[in-house]
Every structure is written in C-alpha cells, then in structure tokens.
Task: structure prediction
Amino acid sequence: MIGEAPLVVVREEQLARYILHNSHVRQDNTLKADPFIPHPRADLSVTRHLQLSEPEIWALGEDVARQTGKALKGRGDTLAQTYLGQKLRILAAPAPGNPNHANITGWPADKPMQKIIALEIAAQSHYHPR
Amino acid sequence: MILAMTTSAVIFAGAQALPSRGSSDAARYVSQQTESGLNHLKDSHAFGVPINELWEVFANCRAANWDGYQAEPVEYPTLQMATQFLKALPLGTAAPSIGAEPDGHLTMEWYRSPRRTLSVSISPEGELHYASLHGASRVYGTEPFFGDTPESIMDLIKRVVTA
Result:
C-alpha cells in the first residue's frame, strides 16, 4: 500500500532507478554509469522502497515506462548511503502517483565529475531485471 | 590480381598502413582499395568497432524522454561524431560497449569490472568527457576530438583492457 512517505531519508534506505534500455546494463548484469548521470538536469530522480512491496516497486517503474511507450527492463537499487558517501544529498519529493519519489541533489556542474560519481554509484548498485 | 594482392597486403599490415601517395592510375587504385578495405574492416565487429550497436542505441534514443526521466534526444550530429571517434580508434583496439546519457550524449565503455572501467561521453560538439575507475584510483577530464583518439584516452583504454 502506497501511503504518505516520511520526509527524512535515512542511510539504510534502498532507492530505485528504473531502467528502460538494455544499453544501460552490462552483459554481467551490472549497471553502467549512464543511467546515474543527472545532466542536463540538476537532480537525479529515484524511488524510495520504504514500505513498498516488490509488486508495488515494479508498478511504479511500469508507470515510468508507460510514459515513454517502452518496456521496463529492470531497476537499479542503491543504498542511500552510497549517494551520501559521494557528498550528494537526498530530498524526499513526493510526486503525483509516486509519494516515494526523491531527488538526488548537490551534483557538481562539471560533466566529467558527474561521470566519476556516477561510476562509483553504479559500482555499488544492484541491477534487478524485470 | 597483383593489385588485389598488394591491396590486401597493405590492409593487413595493420594500423600502420598508409595510402599510397603515388600518382599513377595503379597507385590511385591501390590507395582507393586500401581506404575502402579499411572502412569495410572498421565497419565490422571482427575488428571490434560496433557501428551497428551505435546505430541501435541512436535509434532507441532519438525521441525526447527516452529514459522515462525527461532525457534529451540523441541528435544526428552526435551519432556522426561518435562514428568518427569509433573509426579513429586504432585497429585492434578492444570494442567498447555503446550507451547514451540523459543529456543526449553517446557513451563508449571499456569494462573489466565495476572498479576497472572507462566511460567516454561524446558530445555533438566533439567534446570527449571521460571518467575511469582503477581500483581506488579515479581519473576524469575532458579532451577535444579533432579526428584522432586523444593519447590520454588511449592510455586509459589500455589500462582497463590489459591484464
């Protein structure tokens, strides 16, 4: 059941980034840095697992995919502390249809710096195929 | 027959092969065949240049919001720049994996493990933004692309792919 999410994101939370392209996933089922790059936007959108069941987490991903007409390929799960360890911040940002939405903020504007951070995050994320 | 053999010999001399600078018809023919042969080889997976994969990613990421998170579309000039970058890689270079980023840049990744990897982003303007992990070491920066693979990026490719 999706209800009102707490506004404080704790280090132990799992955060999902939905994957719509096979090119974002390596052959060994690890994730590339590409889906973790925020540019040209300032923030990176994620979904907090919180109390959601697996079907509910996937249902939110299906909503993301439906807007593009593409199929959901999977999701990358990352511990909140991975983002915090890269000196990023996590702000709860409930959205219509997704009260568990959050933004990863505090990214450097420099693209290469974003890429190195995204590589670090990808290295500590876990890919779950749909 | 003699010309064909000469052309093949030049092609398979590898990356050092240079087109003939002779001015005779035969020399021009050899030069054209050499160029054509090199392009054919570079367009094939046999030499590690995944042009087809590049086109596939481009086709899948041409529309805005292709990632479901409001990504910018990958534009044709970016594809052209990425194709030139691929073709500029010395023959025998390990094949990268192709991807795209939300700002519409195409990416090429050389990968051995999550902490031994190089990602290069190619912008439509010909900027190469790169980042590489080698254990605890982090290397990143930007190089302009003027038709040749920058030495710094070639060094990183070698660091990732060699044992």
